[in-house]
Amino acid sequence: MTILQAGLNSEKKPVSKLRIPQHDLLGVDVLDAGDVATILDLAEYYVVQNRRRSLTGALLKGMVIVNLFLENSTRTRLSFDMAAKRLGADVINMTADGSSLLKGESLTDTLKTINAMRPDLVIIRARAEGSAEEAARLIDAPVINAGDGTREHPTQALLDALTLRRHFGHLEGLHVAIVGDILHSRVAHSNLHLFKKMGVTHSCVGPRELLPLGVDGTQDITEGLKGADAVMVLRIQKERLTEKLSFTEEEYFKAYGLTAERLALAKPSAVVLHPGPMNRGVEIDAALADDSARSLITTQVEMGVAVRMACLDLLTRGLRGAC
Ligand code: CP
Q1: Domain with 13 in it
Q2: Residues with CB under 6 A from ligand 1
Q3: Does 175 share its domain with 119?
Q4: pTM higher than 0.85 for the full model?
Q5: What is the Cα–Cα distance from 288 to 258, expressed in whole angstroms?
Q6: 76 is an active site residue
Q7: 64 backbone dihedrals φ, ψ, rounded to 5°
Q8: pLDDT band at residue 54, thresholds of 50, 70 and 90?
Q9: How crowded is residue 261: how many other Cβ atoms within 10 Å of its Cβ?
Q10: Which residue in the list 77, 86, 151, 153 is annotated as catalytic?
């Protein structure tokens, strides 16, 4: 199904290919272009359902989903919670605070404990790369990676793709400039996988110390923004820095902060994305972030609910006996 078909038929659930082969969603790296299209097409349907502000047929009624967030989150945690509730599931939210992790229990034992309670699906965000893989090994139910360290954040890349696809009508042929702390960004890593699969070209822009080795990047923002259809701005992930940066926030904003003037270096119609949370006046100018003619940031948040509804639907099909 193309985006136009999906848009036209988004009142109806797309039935042509309602299946992905994965038991878990741990990264974009294991999805193929067909899997991505299946998730995005189904998410189009859930955009409409979510706007109706009602449960959508209680698809997941009777299921219990554990939302395990061991790192801070606003968007991802709330939107998984909302997506699960829109579909009729009960949700148990768990954070490190108030858990026995603070008494010294390991993540491994925590995951084994959760599995013994027989949840229907587990969503996990954790600081260490590979935590989601460990959860998938130890938990029988489907596991969704809501961000594991710097490695992957697959539902963020999928919601970014849905936002871009709805805005431009297609993904293939777009050029996205990613500006900021690419080295520590699981959002960038998942998006780079997705771009490659979906025919999106990219440029990576940032100071040398925030560009990963092996990534073809530039420190020159003028060069990096040239020809971009969209600019994806990333915050500096201070919580993951191991060394002091060589620049202040003011110097960073001067060199890389996205302003309306700087956006003019991209295509005239270029739009702005930011996965959040934003640091206004550091990586992005506040007025540009709020400019609804150029900024798709709140659309990204809305698409997050729809994408997560689609992922919950697809990953529970086996449990529901859906064919
Ligand atoms: N984009 C994102 O993961 O935001 P949160 O950390 O608020 O979930």
Answers
A1: 3-153+302-320
A2: 73-77, 147, 153, 156, 275-277
A3: no
A4: yes
A5: 8
A6: yes
A7: -120, 120
A8: low
A9: 9
A10: 153
